[in-house]
Specification:
Elements lengths: L26 H29 L16 H13 L1 H7 L1 E4 L5 H10 L3 E4 L7 H9 L5 H10 L3 H6 E4 L8 H8 L3 E5 L5 H11 L2 E5 L22 H9 L6 E4 L7 E6 L4 E2 L3 H10 L3 E3 L7 H6 E2 L2 E2 L1 H8 L3 E5 L5 E5 H6 L8 E5 L1 H4 L14 H9 L5 E6 L4 E5 L6 E16 L37 E5 L4 E4 L4 E17 L5 H18 L1 H9 L4 H16 L3 H12 L12 H22 L22 H18 L9
Parallel strand pairs: 1-2, 1-4, 2-3, 4-5, 8-9
Antiparallel strand pairs: 5-7, 6-7, 9-19, 10-11, 12-13, 12-14, 14-15, 15-20, 16-20, 17-18, 17-19, 17-20
Helix pairs in contact: 2-3, 2-4, 4-5, 17-19, 17-21, 20-22, 21-22
Length: 646
Amino acid sequence: LHDLPVCSMICDDMQVPTPAHSSHRTPEDADDARESKKAALKARRRASKAARRAAAGLSARAPRFGARNENRAAVFVKFLVETFGVERLRREGVCDVAGGRGEITCRLAHCHEVRCVLVEPREAVDLQATVLKRVAPRLPARYRRHLEEAGRSERIERLATVVESPFPPRDAADAALVAGCGIWVGLHADGATEAIVEEALRARKAFAVVPCCVFPRFFATRATEDGRPVRTTADLVSYLAAKDARTCTTTLAFEGKNRVVSCDASAVRVAAGPADVSSAVLANEPILIEDSAATWRATRSWTADGALDATAVERNLGDRVAPVVAGDGARTTMRIREFLTTLHDERAGYLKDFHLHRASPGWYAPPPGLDDDWLNRFCDREGRDDFRFLYLGGDGSRTPLHADVLASHSWSANISGAKKWWLFPPSETSKLQDTAGVYVDDVRLGFYDVERFPRVADAACLRVTQPPWSTLFVPSDWRHMVVNVGATLSINHNWFEAGAVPNVWRYLDTEARATAAELEACRADVEGRGGELSEFFWLRERVLRASARLNVSDFVAMCRSEVCARDTLAPAGSAPEDERRVRDGVRLALRAVAADHAGSLFLDESGTWPHDEDAASWSRSARDRGTAALAEVLAALEPVGESPSR
């Protein structure tokens, strides 16, 4: 901002020569002439304003159109309140970038009790002077009188902070203040306008900007979607709006540059088609797929007029026994018929992890783009418990903050009811922990100890209310919390495809090392009686399989069965560079296995984990089969012309 010109409104006084008076004209005639000129000037101004209204497509009776520039901050604040809601503004806070004297900050803090951070590098800002001179005169009389008598605003002192810095701030403390705000705004922020948009999208913040000056010489590389250089404010509005599919533009009711570009980057993207789902999986980003479960047999059979049909669920699944988690976290089992009778009781708990596909298949099919399921195909081949579940809970039942098993993806489809989701990318993990590394249980303000978890409010979070019949894709390693709205029945899969393999491997490697450390006494025992060290590694694999549901040998067998049976690993329709990136990720994960765990792989003649718990399970031949399987899949992943790394 320091190097950019400052946009200012300059109005030169114009001297209009007055014709000499004739000797026969009276003072009354001169007064009449002046009044006539004034009336004619007003008429011309009204006509000009009407023409601008028509050009902007606004009604001649638009109530606030034509507000002079000194009112534009009030109009913009009204837009923010109507767009985001005052409760959200208060909850998340507003960062007002390049806000000049801080009128937007003053209006939000004093009139709406919104926490604000004003980033303004060009001048020392006196917010108390601004609230008295620019806000107070437009307040109702009783509020104005109270403010003027006090001589200052207590709310400004309590809620508003000024950061004298360019945007984004370079100082860590200033950057933390900005990051603590959930909504970033800029009214005629000049050279900072594009920075607000780009930084907000990167940090998953909501934003609203009103572009003004373009500065084409300073930003010569900007181009519209059709390749033209950005030279006008209209071009700049289009250029900014094209940065994200979720942006929208609106015309504000004041004169001059009045187009606002806004976007809630903290909202989950909605898929427009299968290509959007594939791109979200590749990018490891959440996405909502609307009406994806509308035609499922489960939806047709278990809902009536859009609501849960408990009688139908009981008829089909009533005798099945399912796990239930009580409100205090205690686990039990219960017949689904019995649980349905307590569904609307707040103390009923949450029916979770019922293996619907195994117990009664055919009720649904995974949405396209979310069906390349390495994990459950492996479980089916092995005859093991899968990761396909039915969940059923009453209004307010919830799942605490967690990351999914094995750092896998998941998808959740609502048959009835809705779910409120809070989703946190992996980069925000540290903000959700206390000093001992314990994660917060409930991220809603007022539901956790702020002193123990002081950074939860600063964590970038995506929020979405998932409606009935829709599916939400939850990416690998994203922590999330869920609260049900109404009686909610959902189908949930834990799964992963090739793109998530690096995350899954990092999780397994960490668990394998922790398991080995816990079993160190067993290692000493094996060595003390002269046994083979492979027996200890086999024991570690056995314990890891029981605790994590997958061990390193399983991981290698799974990768071999998937990689060696197909030509491509990335989602259908992916670009060649995406295919290379995905293959490289799988190859690097398996190279890490070869470097750190090659001596602890055990497979039987069928290429799976040995089921017999005897010396043959950790024999040399079992280890050789594991090593051979790893070499085979690494060879399949090597680019043409390269030899496998040793």
